[in-house]
Write a structure and sequence with these properties.
Helix content: 25-40%
Bound molecules: S-adenosyl-L-homocysteine
Structural class: alpha/beta
Distance between the termini: 14 Å
Strand order of the largest sheet: 5-8-7-6-9
Largest sheet: 5 strands, mixed, barrel
Length: 250
């Protein structure tokens, strides 16, 4: 039976998704509230990931073991590393790396102990579903139309795009030009940086659960990162997230 786990890194987005649920019930455990119900007749379990690798890995493990999810959609925000990305763009991970994992000299840099891999890639089938669905939203300008003219101007949003590529995760909020530069030298393929995706990917890989990690760019991972971050998340990214998830659950 199909049961989709929806893991979100923004509490505002979780509230929006929870309001879509039919036949809603709640289970509270381990400082997390799991919301069970259906969206478009599909069974879902929705939960706030909490922030960072340990917290999000624990939450996804709970979704798999306790609630028997059969696939996972993760949505959140990220800081842009690649200079072609703008605030508001959507990134879908085709590979994920833990930029702070370094067990040299006993293993290669970024190698996940015992898995012998430095990066993880979501299964092609679920990745293609997400790419198709989000491409439609972006082409139809559905996301930008969720916002007022004033919001579009405040956050300088005009031509949103969707990009597929590598995401780096680690227990660090990037808010300095120097750290950003170091990350892009260390991992030149990385599009954006966040704090949960690669950890969630590792758990899903180990339990053989198909997953997709989707991120809205909230900042440029540089000295300006903190400016307007909270406002952008609550006014823009969380609404994009709800719309993206609603369209994915069919
Ligand atoms: N919204 C919180 C802060 C959340 S922690 C607050 O108001 O205080 C940061 C969240 O944003 C994590 O989910 C992380 O994955 C993501 N993120 C966005 N930009 C980031 C950046 N520049 N560096 C690291 N993580 C970032």
């Amino acid at each position: 039976m199909k049961r989709i786990g929806i893991l979100g890194a923004m509490p505002e987005e979780i509230n929006g998704i929870v309001s879509l649920l039919k036949d809603k019930t709640e289970v509270i455990k381990g400082m997390r509230t799991y919301y069970l119900g259906t969206i478009n007749e599909v069974e879902v379990v929705v939960v706030f990931s909490r922030w960072g690798k340990v917290a999000s890995a624990t939450t996804v493990t709970h979704l798999i073991v306790e609630f028997g999810i059969t696939q996972l959609f993760f949505s959140g925000v990220a800081g842009a590393i690649n200079p072609t990305l703008n605030i508001g763009d959507i990134v879908i991970a085709s590979s994920l790396v833990q930029h702070d994992l370094d067990a040299r000299p006993i293993m290669d840099r970024f190698e996940i102990p015992l898995l012998g891999k430095t990066m993880l890639c979501p299964p092609k089938e679920i990745l293609d579903v997400a790419i198709g669905s989000i491409n439609e939203l972006v082409n139809a300008k559905t996301l930008i139309q969720l916002l007022s003219q004033k919001q579009q101007e405040t956050f300088s949003l005009s031509n949103l795009k969707m990009v597929v590529g590598q995401i780096a995760s680690g227990d660090q909020f990037f808010a300095s030009n120097g750290d950003k530069e170091k990350l892009s030298v260390m991992l030149p393929e990385v599009l954006c940086v966040e704090m949960e995706g690669a950890a969630v990917a590792q758990v899903c890989f180990e339990y053989n659960i198909p997953y997709v990690i989707i991120r809205t760019i909230s900042d440029e991972a540089n000295d300006n990162s903190v400016v307007d971050f909270k406002e952008f998340v609550s006014q823009v990214a969380s609404r994009f997230g709800v719309e993206i998830i609603r369209n994915l659950i069919k």
